[in-house]
Amino acid sequence: MPGQALPPTCTFLNVGQAFAGTQNVSSMQKDEAWKVNVRLQGCDMQRGYLCGSMEALNVPSAETPVVTFWEGEIVDNKNYTFYTGKWEATKDTDVKHWSKFSSFLELQDDVLKDGGKSFDLANYPYMFMRWKEKFFVNVGTDCGLTIAGFYYVCFSRSDGSVHGFYYDPNSSPYQKLELKATNEGRAGYSFATYQFQ
Amino acid sequence: MPASAAWARPEDLVESLSSLDNTARLKALRDVKNQIIGNKTKKLSYIKLGAVPRVVEILASDTEIPLLVQSAAAVGSFACGIDAGVKAVLDSGVLPHLLKMLQNGDNKVVEACARSLKMIFHSPLAPKSDMFEGHRMELILELLNNGSENVAEVAASVLARCCETLEHQQALADAGGLRSLVSLLAGSVKKQEAALDALAALTKHNQQLSAILIMMDQGAALSLIIRLIRDKSPRMRLLACMCLAHIGKACPAGYGQEDEVRINMLGILMKLLDEPGQVGEDAPGVLADLVTNNEELQKIAQKENAVEKLADILHRDTLPAKQLEGVLLALAELCSRLEESRRQLLDSQVEAPIVAAFGHPCEGVKVAACSCVKSLSRSVKNLRTALTGERLVIPLLQLLSDPSSAVQVQAIAAVGNIVLDFTLQKTVVMQSSGIDQLVHFAQSMDPILRRNAVLALKNLLYMADSVVKGRVVNELTVSTLCELIRDSEEDVQEQAISLVRNLAYGDPDCIDYVFAHGDLLLQAVEQQLSVSLRPEISMQALYVINNVAAGNERHKDAVMDLVAPHKALSNTSGFLLNRYLQDMINPQLRVVAVWCIINLTYPGGTGTSSRVTRLKNAGVESLLQKMADDPCLDVKDRVKTALEHFSTAVTLVATTSGQ
């Protein structure tokens, strides 16, 4: 847009934004759900980069809530594409997971054809991302949880809701992450800010 | 009668320097000169005995060649390597005599004077400004153009030391210096090196002269310099790179093959890092200049393991200050944008040498160390892991009290990032004197320091708990904060208002701090909003209003009084947020304005319906309805939510009144 002085806006991708919900594990052996809180701590749209913390509560194998630090890649066809190209995810894995999001169906043909490079992602109401946990913040690696895999994520610009599927060749497939943006019990939405020098 | 050299007391020798007998004078001169060569102690002791003025007197008034040659040589010797010697010869008024002798007919005299002049100009005490007095500059250029090999070389190296300010660079250029120096590039190795040295000095931070050099002889001069980056001599390669790095920095995208040349320079400089002596010491600084603001080049450097290589140098035991400064600056630039480079640097265990550099006696080193930390801390991940320790933060905070303002500025910049530890308690900073110092700098006369300090405080307040917020408000005081909001510099205003934004973020007990002095703070923000034309300032102010409106009933009502004063109920022009709801250039402003309304009409509050009514009467609902198809997705979604709030309230009122 001509003369625009300020960066493009996506309300729920503001630093400090909190998300709350659950992660479900459904398999033949067990049916678990634990509470998850996420807080966005960094967002650099130009580089397609996000990061934040993820807190898992009432995890059966852990004594305390487990907090991890994660980094995200935004599929913007500039910095990152739909094809992961690492973390043991093949193109097949990618398509299988993205296809589980209904908002991906519209793009599916384009993605299969040319990786979806021609699609105008900047104006699409959903953002696709990959979130990868990098390290445990408050516990050791023997806490019973793994961070070897990553999440395929579909993020709604309109209400900040997050849907994700965990992929790790050594874990149960399609563990679902479902979060909603939350204003943490306040009577309104508040936005913090910081700036790097 | 002349005393025998082997037995002469120093005092006697000094005495003999003023002997009326030529032979005696010459002998004494030779003896003194031979004794002081390479001997610092002897130099100092003869200086104390008053030898220097007598030696200079010989140069000034004598005419016999041997006397002139020996006195010039003695002057050079006194000035070689010790500042006290340089001071002594300068205080004795040697400069005009040396310069005069450079035009002497005898070669040996000229050469001896040239060497001495070179010694003097090696020293930081060199009388650079004096060289611009009278016709001295023309004289030096004459020597540059017509002098012998050694003389031309000395002339160029004198010029190289004299061009530190814009005025000096300009004066030299005006006297034809650029052209003369470029001509030297066709000469011998020594001439070329001296010329490059001087050209590098002339083009440093000088866009005009850099541009002239680029264009000179249709680019032939530049091409020559580019060729020299591959010369056999390491010093030549370094000086040619230095010259091109300065030109590239002062005049970005100045010439055609620049990108390719820069890549070549990168490889050459990385090898020069290993050279012994002056070349190896200067190479890192040139590398820093080369990669400044050049992300592509930084990426290539990272792939070539530049970071690791420089980090290895950092681990050496004793590094000359210039080299240490250069290495830290290069690392700061290499890590300024690339997370991968930062990770490599942290993996190289550099915390100890960086913290040690904070305590270095040299100002440039301290500034470079702060710059390095600033680059490393542009990363959430690093701030949450490697950079949190007291070992780093406490010494950095201490640099805020450094006597040098250059150090203070860079230290505050680094602190500005470091306070983002992504915890609630900000323990390390809270337990130090950091907040006091930042508050102090927020009232500095220097607008850059003010801005950086307020930014640091803003960052400190990011997601901070009520204890941290209370402390900052108490120490800064609401009245100072109001002054900062009304600061003469827009940059400071912006930071102050976003500090209030962070203050108001969170639960009502935090928002209460905004009202620590009644309405003063909110009024100051609103006033600045109404006069400022800068969108960034408008945005921050709207966020303040928004964040306060996310509070309790008292907070929401205070915002209502601000944005929809009772007296202007009847028309939309009195409604503060209108301007921003209708700002067609900045969707960001429209979004925040709508969020304000969402918060003001948030369901469930005791005053919600009366606020809704007031806003409706001010025409807000109809304005929002017109925005239902806003071109910006975010605005559109928020407008939908806001309109829902309006209709929900109506339904509630209808339901309750129907009972």
TrEMBL record, chain A:
PANTHER family: GID COMPLEX SUBUNIT 4 HOMOLOG (PTHR14534:SF3), VACUOLAR IMPORT AND DEGRADATION PROTEIN 24 (PTHR14534). Belongs to the GID4/VID24 family. It comes from Sphagnum troendelagicum. This is Glucose-induced degradation protein 4 homolog. InterPro entries: GID4/10-like.
TrEMBL record, chain B:
Keywords: Cytoplasm, Nucleus, Repeat. Its main location: cytoplasm. It is found in: Cytoplasm; Nucleus. The keyword Nucleus applies. InterPro entries: ARM-like, ARM-type_fold, Armadillo, ARMC8/Vid28. PANTHER family: ARMADILLO REPEAT-CONTAINING PROTEIN 8. This is Armadillo repeat-containing protein 8. It comes from Sphagnum troendelagicum. The lineage of its organism: Eukaryota, Viridiplantae, Streptophyta, Embryophyta, Bryophyta.
